[in-house]
Amino acid sequence: MTRSRAGWDIHFDAGGSLAPPLAGSQGVARAEVRAELRRCREVLPKLQGSHPPSGFVRVLKRTAALRAVQASVARWRARKPNDLIHIGIGGSSLGAEALLRASAHPHHGLLSDRQRGGPRVHFVDNVDPETLGSLLEVVDLRHSLVHVVSKSGSTVETAAGFQVLRDALERVGRGVRWADHCVFTTGRGALRELGTREGVEILDFPADLGGRFSVLTAPGLFTPAVAGVNVGAVVQGARRYLSRIANAALADNSAAVSAAIAYLMAEHKRKSVHVLMPYADALEPLARWYAQLIGESLGKRARRGARTTGVGPTPLPARGTTDQHSQVQLFVEGPADKWVNFVTVEKPRRVQRVAGDEPADYLEGIDLGTLLRAEQRGTAIALAAARRPSACWILPEIHPQSVGQLFFALELQTAYQGALYGINAYDQPGVEAGKIAAFALLGRDGYKKEKAAIEANTPPSWRI
Ligand code: PA5
């Protein structure tokens, strides 16, 4: 079916968060939302301005950067690698994984080479020796591409994973040059210096944004594109979302409205746990990407009058229907501290009818997509009956255009929330502190003082 551009548009339904019918302590009144929206007026103009606090909106206009990614992708696809190993961590991995899973065939890795038309993809976003060691047992490095993503070029996990792989590539012998099997997406730093010296292909990690806001640029696009995802359409979807909201009233801007409700829920209604629960397996990694986006952007120290306090909602990924038999019990009857955000797809890409048979004759002829939607509505109704608020992001279909809209809307929602909390959503001092401590423990040069401080403050052991 061909759709007009508007046919891919995503929507946000906040009806399940409204008071009334919810009590004023559990839900939000429209007037409360309007008051918060007034505080959001400057956010988008600033993000589009000449000195934006982050470049994630402005990157959508950088067509040359997108073309550079696509040109590199075309060259690598022509070489027909069997496997692509993506090494990165946090924002340098989650976006690419979420985009690939949302847009590629659900069983991409199981397809034959011809059906896939691109490499199998493996994400190495941890230093568990079991994961990387076992991957090396199953991939043929002679026919592999390694995509190393690190803005700083110095993240210890990424450096370690890459060094293991480079060593393995060097041992292949038979004329294999490790640098010919690698692409680096990086900013200024040691990785770029190494790549430049050794003749590795380098893509630019945009200087004006952090990993968690990078999914619509080279760090997030290259890997899915080499696998065959139409990343041009993904970016087009994001641009379309921006054009929909850029001149609209804030009350018609789903990123701003959802941010205002999120802020009210956390700060005024004691709903500090914000669940993102897609009813689509393809969007499950997107919920993990969103958890990092919210956690690292909004979990900050903030000034509240004369004192400093920790703010930010706790993001919780879930999956429908699976979590109906798990966490939903907690959402409906546990502490009333949650705001559940569903993500639904109106028209799944496939139809799978149930045969009329035992043990559930009543399912005869029902499509699994209809069942999925009914179960999501059932969960929303159960939450409402228990006076628990919910909301819903609605995709007409899982398509690169609507997926691009959703990624961008959630990035923008995070920026609006950052403004409402009055914090810098674009740094991560808490993460940096952990990185420094790890360097000190590993005995890296220049971290002697930190090592001594750690040793002096080591907590007592209580090992049972
Ligand atoms: O979102 C972020 O900024 C972080 O999660 C980073 O992506 C992560 O720490 C990895 O950093 P780098 O890309 O410098 O290796």
Q: Give me the strand/helix succession.
A: EHHHEHHEHEHEHEHHHEHEEEHEHEHHH
Average residue-wise pLDDT = 95
Number of helices: 17
| Beta-strand content estimate | 5-15%
Helix content: 40-55%
Please tell me the total number of domains.
2
Which residues sit in consecutive blocks of at least 5 with pLDDT less than 50?
A: none
Overall shape: it is: globular
The CATH homologous superfamily of the largest domain corresponds to: Glucose-6-phosphate isomerase like protein, domain 1
Largest sheet, spatial ordering of strands: 1-12-11-7-10
Structural class label: alpha/beta
DSSP E strands, number: 12
- Supply the CATH class of the largest domain: Alpha Beta
What is the CATH architecture assignment of the largest domain? 3-Layer(aba) Sandwich
Sheet with most strands = 5 strands, mixed
Bound molecules: 5-phosphoarabinonic acid
Separation, N- and C-terminal Cα atoms: 62 Å
Report on the structure:
By secondary structure, the protein is of the alpha/beta class. The protein has two domains: about 5-40 and about 235-420, 3-Layer(aba) Sandwich (Rossmann fold), CATH 3.40.50; about 60-230, Glucose-6-phosphate isomerase like protein, domain 1 (Rossmann fold). The chain is built from 17 helices and twelve strands. The chain has helices at about 30-40, 45-50, 65-80, 95-105, 115, 130-140, 155-170, 190-200, 220-225, 230-245, 255-270, 285-300, 330-335, 370-385, 400-420, 430-440, 450-455; strands at about 10-15, 85, 120-125, 145-150, 180-185, 200-205, 275-280, 300-305, 305-310, 315, 340-345, 390-395. The strands form three sheets. A five-stranded mixed sheet has the order 1-12-11-7-10, sandwiched between helices. It has a five-stranded parallel sheet with strand order 3-2-4-5-6, with helices on both faces. A two-stranded antiparallel ribbon has the order 8-9. Strand 4, helix 7 (about 155-170) and strand 5 (about 180-185) form a beta-alpha-beta unit. The longest helix is centred in the last third of the chain and has 22 residues, at about 400-420. The radius of gyration is 23 Å and the shape is globular. The protein binds 5-phosphoarabinonic acid. 5-phosphoarabinonic acid binds near residues 296 and 428.
